[in-house]
Amino acid sequence: MAASAELHHRHAGAIGEIKETVESIVVALILAFVFRAFIVEAFVIPTGSMAPTLYGAHGTIVCEDCGTEFSYGLRDLADQRAGQVVGAGSRATCPNCNHDNTSLQMTDASKNPESGDRILVMKWPFDIGGDWFGPARWDVTVFKDPADGTTNFIKRLIGLPNELLMILDGDIYTAAIDKISPKTMEELESQRHEKYLLRTKQDKGQLPGLSYEAKTELNDIFKIAPKTKIAQRSLWQPVYDHDYLPRTLGGGQPRWEPINRDGSAWDATHRTIHFSGSNKINDGIKLAGKRLVGQCAYNIADRPPPLVSDFQVSFVFTPESNDSQVRVRLSKMSRIFWAIVDTSGSVSIVESADPPDASTPAMLRGNIDPLSPGDAVQISFEHVDYRLSLSVADREVLASSSDPNAPGYYAPSIYALRRLSRPVGADAPQIFGTGSAFTVTHLAVRRDVFYYHDASYMALPTLYWAPRSGWASPDYPMLLRSHEYFMLGDNTSASKDSRLWDTLGDHMAVRGEDFQLGTVPKDQLIGKAFFVYWPSPHRLEWLPSLKFGVVPDVGRMRWIR
């Protein structure tokens, strides 16, 4: 009897343990489901629309000429919507030295590209919302494709609710709706309503542009939307890094060369650039052999890229004496700006057509700690979003402001920019020196992202009535209502984003006029991308039969900004 009771007790205990285990598994699954549904979810990047911030299916190559490593896009064979075909005869142009690399490591035919970045996306902040956690401009955002409602898209959030948005000369301009007069708002609402009628075939004709009176008013209201410092770090794209010198210097190869070849104190033929000392204020070097255009190396086949004019020049300055001065020259729309750093500790930003001297008035002036011989200091001068900034030792020491009550550099009027038939480029960056000898190392030039409408082809071919250049162009700014957002890809010439959306799915069509082509409704937002947890892993070269990567590329795991 006792033995039977003990056996029954053991049996009951075993059932209890199984029950607890099953309950634990069920709870774990529920928690995992809740975590995935409401907290964090993983996604895979299928295309290169966000390159070089995020990579889709791609190949990686080390340039045969300068040694720069870069990635080039491949068609994702599982994605039947779009992608570029890479095959025999394709060339990947090095973003640094312009060399056309033909020995590509893989093609579409191999059906074995490096996989797209795997990312983590936070969902809960968008669920909470508000100023602290809600969607913010320049966030890298995941949302549902308005064309089908099932495909997940990832772009950078550019336009916010209750504003008017326009893309002009590569930059983003916005105007708060409450700053627009009732008459102009009525015209904008009428344009948006007509867009709906044309989309639903309730009307025929063309989408009307804005009147001269409305454009004149908006000229004074539109303001540039500056990028956050965090986003800007990701949006700088390489132009030329002197640490990766081309082995051959042909006509199309970039180089730093003396402006005046006779008697120049500059030697830029090595990675360490040497200035031997001079009192000539016009003795400098310039970046030659490089087209200053908005071209992304990720794109194997690209349309003719636009000229760009927002740049950053950075380098390490090491004086050999205590009476040296280095000056960096940048230009924008025929205006010329200089950043001046003196070993005495004087720093300034000057606007001058000619090399400035001691008598040239400064736009901005300040002081840093004096530099002693042998002191190596990082210097960076940039022009971006009509803002000039000089940083020394990774600290911003001078910057212009668009505040009309503050000194600094102001953007030209929207009216003046509208008259541009095409983007206006800039002179090549230049560096000058005076005084005693110094060296320049780790010299790099970067350009800002350039958003644009390509007027050379029909941007919205399926919509005969739509603006030729796409949504949010100067004549057709995008009026965003309280529930609407506007998205752009960082790889602007290879991204079908809010500028170019011409179809919508049934899930959007049933919303009627509540949905507007070119926008993403708030309830279609999924979350904010924040980390690349699994970039394409390394392949084992000594095991060629293993055609996929197995070694984690820890160095490319990164925060998404």
What does this structure look like?
Among the domains are: 2-34; 146-227 and 458-526, no CATH class; 255-288 and 309-447, Jelly Rolls (Sandwich), CATH 2.60.120. 16% of the residues lie in helices and 29% in strands. The chain contains eight helices and 31 strands. Strands 1, 6, 7, 8, 28, 29, 30 and 31 form an eight-stranded antiparallel β-sheet that branches. Strands 12, 14, 15, 17, 22, 23, 24 and 26 form an eight-stranded antiparallel β-sheet that branches. A seven-stranded antiparallel β-sheet has the order 13-16-25-18-19-20-21, with no helix packed on it. The longest helix is centred in the N-terminal third of the chain and has 38 residues, at 2-39. It is globular, with a radius of gyration of 28 Å. Residues 30-35 have low confidence and may be disordered.
